[in-house]
Structures are given as structure tokens and as C-alpha cells.
Amino acid sequence: MSGTNWNLGSVGGLNFHSTVNGTQVGTQNNYPQKQNLIEAASEIQNLLDHLSQRYPMETDAQKQVIAAEFKKEVEQKPELRGRIIAALQSGGAEALKQLCNHPAAEIAIAAYEGWSNA
Hints:
62% of the residues lie in helices and 12% in strands. It is mainly α. Helix 1 (32-54) packs across helix 2 (60-75), helix 1 (32-54) crosses helix 4 (93-99) and helix 4 (93-99) packs antiparallel against helix 5 (105-117). The chain is globular, with a radius of gyration of 23 Å.
């Protein structure tokens, strides 16, 4: 048996009393990280698909052009930029690259990661 009494009168008059009898087992599941990673990967995929319709991507140099255009597009969309940075921080670049099914994804994500860390 345990008990907790808190009196936080100086923090706005909050009084808290809790008594725990027996054993409590709790489970906390936090899934938004994976969902955010999937959403960011989907948005990256869509943007790269759109860019690859406008630019050829036969060579690595052409993929670099797509990566540069990808950066320009992302910089014009602050919400997308924030989601990509959050996905990179939470899941890492490798996870994001694996979720994107596009030939230029690896170059674009690596380049964007480098630009956002600079």
C-alpha cells in the first residue's frame, strides 16, 4: 500500500491525493512517431514522383538535379519541411529512405538531411 499527498498551493491551489492499493501494471503505447514517418515518406514519394515527370533521372547527375528541385519545393512548404525534419529526427534517414519507393529518394533525403543540418 502506498499513498501520495501533494499540496501545491503556490502553483494555483492544486491539491492532489492518491492512494494505490495492490499492484498496478500500465502499458503506454506511442504510435505517432511511426505514423509521422510514414506520412512524411508518402509526401516525399509524391513530390519525387511529380519531379521525376518533369526531369529525367537516368544518371546520378540527373538525380542530383531532382534532389536540388526537391529541396526548393520543400523550402517553399514550411509544414512539409517541418514534417520531414521531424521524421528525420525521430526515425532517421535510413528508415525514411526505406519507406520511400523512388530511385531518387536516397539522394534527395541525404541531400536534404545535409542541408537541414548545415
